[in-house]
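<derive_structure_tokens>
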Amino acid sequence: MVQLKLRELLEEMTGALLLIAGGSLLIQALVRNLSDFVGFTIQERLPEWAGLISPTELIGLVGLAIPFIALLGLYHRLTSKTPRLAVLGSALMALTPILFLSGLLTILIRPLPELPYLLWLSPLPYIVGSGFFGLAFFWKDGSIRFVGIPLLVFSGTWALIYIVGLKNGEIPEQLPFVELLTVSLVTMGYLLSTSSTTQYNGASAGS
């Protein structure tokens, strides 16, 4: 019963969570660009004890972390039309934290053999899984199918980040990765929120 209510709550809040994530990344991008105009960063004006983690980085981390949870709320929206893609996508996305934690534990716990490559492999299932979700949306009826477009952009952007990061050892700041993720998240959040509102109003009118 509790699990069902949590699942329904996550499904209902998926659009809002994605909007929050996109807004967080937008704030990060604006603050980062603002420093170029004003000549200093926010972190430079903070006391030393607050310099351990930049507020901008913290906001950005929130924006990057939320979609990892929120997108799982799309699973039950997709099972009716494309159950195989939904199951495969969710299974792959759930594999990411397992690989990440396993790799982290092998580094922290000495008796275990170190397997750092698990950390590098961990983003791949999530990237592919979210791509499957994006494809699955094209089988949906109505305007909700357009969620698949920004979802594929989201997945493709992460794939590009992964490839560039592995090749160069870092993510070049001049590439608009944050901007692409922001646009895709805000678009997904808007479309999902609009769809949920339409369904709710339709159910209320029919009752």
